[in-house]
Amino acid sequence: MTSGTPKGAKARLHRSDWVLAGFRALVAGGPEAIRVEPIARELNATKGSFYWHFKDLNDLRGAMLAAWEELATTEITAPIRRSGLSPRDQVMLLADRVSDIPEVEAGGLAVEPAVRDWGRTDPQARAVLERVDAQRLADLCAFLGAAGLARGRASEGAVRFYSAVIGLEALRMTAGIEMQAPLRAVAEAILGATE
Known about the structure:
Blueprint: H1 15-29, H2 36-43, H3 47-53, H4 57-72, H5 74-81, H6 87-99, H7 111-121, H8 123-146, H9 151-175, H10 180-191
């Protein structure tokens, strides 16, 4: 049995296809590259297809930011919380998960730096970035607190861990540094206070 799109016919695009293409445009050319016509060309689609899914360019940008906010927070932490692992092992799993390379179809390694750059010039992107940073720090503090760190130490540890993530992400892009082992070492050092 065969299925799928008939040969020569265009596959129907979904809203998520446009969002992913928007991220690729952002990574390739910054926020000013998020434009309907070039993205439509990349997708081999019409502007009409774009307007079927989005009312305007700001709608696409908002959808991109909402998707990134979800992927950068809840999509990482929720499975860890449901894992059934000990709190200490959850922190180590978090180190592993944030070391994963983002999907190439969404811009790969350069997605987060591109969103951070976007947040420097766009108030909507800045607000999302601030929420993501605050949520990540709160989540880290909660994971470290559950693993036995007192509130103040958990808060300090969250800043250390998150600073290491941001620095290692930058080094991964520029120097090819693998994140997992150094980030696990940072997590172990932070958790050492609970032993």
